[in-house]
Amino acid sequence: MLDRLRTPLAPALIVALLALAPARWLGWTNDAAALVWLPLRPAAHLGTVAAGWLRPPAPVPVADAQMLAAERDELLALVQRLRSDLEAKTRSIEALEGLPRPMHGRGRPIAASVVTTGPDGIATLNVGRRHGVSPGDPVLAGGGRLVGRVGEPVDANACVLIPASHAAVGDLRVRLVGDRGSDDSALCLLEPIGGAWTAEVDATRLAVGASVRLDDPAWDHAAQGLLLGRVADRSEVPERPLRARIRVVPSWRAGDGAALVVHRTSTEATP
What we know:
alpha+beta; Thrombin, subunit H; 7-stranded antiparallel sheet; 4 helices
């Protein structure tokens, strides 16, 4: 009787031992292991449930959970604040580095940011008398662009930026520069209109896209030669065939996010 039982039990025992062996030993034992573990799974599940009853996880106190959530929110807010500060300082450095080379060493440039902008384009900057800013100081953007100048009044920690295209600035004497540089340039008078400028020029010169640079003795020396904008389009003047009317759009507009630089002409700050 025992001999009869040993004959079928021996292979079954070998298969069971191989099935229980680690899978990395024999890669083909996975299916056999599934067959062997099938009747044992209910008991294993009961063991897991019993272990949970005997050793339940320690609950996190509500106060501790709220404290952890508050600390997480504070850290997230700190990260966002530091990121915003870093981006603002990066823009300021880029604006200062973007000053034209001839301006280095002249005056005292200071980085500024737009705080608010009115519907007429006049903006408020975050620098004022305490920073040495005074009315008439030119305001620049990166790439040698002329934005406008500081208007009145100038508060202790804020000032008004009047864009160069604003009607309050009035006409501007500029130099239109074509593709050939100084060999292809002409002086003209820009008239502000609708946030841009218009002028009448020689119809035989200066195509659309020509750069427009300030050449006005009424402005500070630091602003001379800076880029105001570009010729956007031109139209013929019927009564004067040799003349054309151009429209110039500014190179900077409020809300474009560029950091600004106020080129201070005053030598001292005032309270």
